[in-house]
Amino acid sequence: MHLLALFVVALWPLPLSLSQLELPDCPDTSLTDYLVALIDALYANGLTTFESLITSLSETEGGYDLLSSWYNSQSTLTLLAPTDTAFQSAGITPPFKHLSEWEMVNLMSLHTLDGQWDYEKLPAYPLHSIASTDLVLAEAMNSTVNTTASQVAVLQQAQDGGNVVQVKADNVTAKSWSGLVNLSAASQLWNLQVLPIDSVLPLPPKLSVALTLPTSSRSANGFNNLTSLLSSSSTSPSMSDLEALTVRGFTIFAPVDDAWENPDVKVALNDSTLASNHYTTTYSLYSTAWYGPGQFLNLTLDSGASVDVVYNNSGNFVVMGDQSTQILRSDVLLENGVLHIIDKVLLPISSTPTSASTSPTSGNARPSESVPNAPTGPIQPITTPSAITSGNSTGSVPGEKDAQSSGAGILAVRFWGVVLALSGTFLVSL
Q: What span is annotated as the signal peptide, if there is one (predicted)?
């Protein structure tokens, strides 16, 4: 047993308030043995910064509660464990003095997935899955909004296979390389999986930041027109209002810039409901919700209009009255919800010309790569992450096979307590 493991055995240097806490009553093991086994396994696999983070967490009240929740979990959790090099590249190094207790807990919570997640649990590329994390949105955003909704993670197999899992967050793609850590010798860790990854996951961005990112081949320069509309002084609510946490979630359908060249769109710019025709502040709709039955009906937008989200052999579509727009990419994560990229502007019903109608079975639409058994459900208040899959199921959702978008430039990425500027060439694909 190495030196870092000794802190658990002796429960030092825990604050007095923590050392006085009663350890969970377990007939087979104790929280102490559990953490010792985990730390030894991480150390044996070279994940020393991750184990040091666990050490630091145990010295805080919030961190101790998180570690105890792992121990007490009756279902399997998957820990995404960044390598030492990944932590160093993100500017995160022991003893983590630049991170507050709140930031450390949120960092670890974002890297904790509910359920069993590994290469074999994911559908074949380019499909992707949605996994719930332990990061509660209200805690991450330091909000007093009464919701227990959690952030999610997007996972998929790598294009070239090789047992590689990709985890997509912001414009960062973290990859595993050799599968799960072997924990067979640690019987105490019956409810844990550890998947090493080569990048630290950043927090999902605010809406205003996400709209500047090259998230698809048709939005390589971001969403300038939608940004202008949402930032207009005549638009209410404001961009900052839309970035706030709501009790029931947030979903926005973001048209690509070239969609705004339509003459009918230029006329609709004078309609006060054009902006709110693209979002709802009452539900976070992930793509799992519409694939299962082939549709998700009657999603009410903040404009008062209702849309159906439809899946068929031609693709995934948002249908509003006689209008239909294809979803080019789904499940772009936001700090307070989710964004889906669409290829047309959703015109207010009052200003929709007959010519705007497009069949959702258009022969020009790209087929959607999907597999069955994705869960769904009616629109309802969010008390847990909405429309997400269990790690114990196939966990697959529609994946829009968008071409890669590349470009040179500087990309600002918000990590934990650090803002890094990444320069050079970056690739973006679902």
A: 1-19
**Torsion angle, alpha carbons of 212, 214, 220, 226, to 10:** -40
Q: What is the pLDDT of residues 110-148, one digit of tens each?
A: 999 999 999 999 988 888 899 999 999 999 999 999 988
207-397 topology per CATH: FAS1 domain (2.30.180)
Domain boundaries, the chain: 3-197, 207-397
Whole-number Å distance between alpha carbons of 364 and 59: 58
**Structure letter (DSSP) for residue 297:** E
Q: Are strands 192-197 and 77-82 parallel, antiparallel or unpaired?
A: parallel
Backbone angles phi, psi at 244, to 5 degrees: -80, 155
* CA-wise closest residue to 3 among 33, 48, 60: 48
Residues near 261 by beta carbon (within 8 Å), at least 6 away in sequence: none
3-197 has CATH 2.60.120.200 classification: no
Classify 201 as helix, strand or coil.
coil
When mean pLDDT is compared across 77-81, 229-233, 389-393, the lowest value belongs to 389-393
> In b/e form, how buried is each residue of 8-41, taking b as 16+ CB within 10 angstroms?
beeeeebeeebeeeeeeeeeebebebbbbbbbbb
Per the DSSP assignment, residues forming a β-bridge with 21 are none
Alpha carbon distance 74, 150 (integer Å): 18
Would you state the torsion angle of the CA atoms of residues 401, 405, 411, 414, taken in this order, to the nearest 10 degrees? Answer: 0
Residue-wise over 100-139: b if at least 16 C-beta within 10 A, else e?
eeebbbbbbbbbbbbbbbbbebbbebebbbbbbbbbbbbb
CB atoms within 10 A of CB 347: 25
pTM for the whole structure: 0.78
Quick check: do 3-197 and 207-397 share a fold? yes
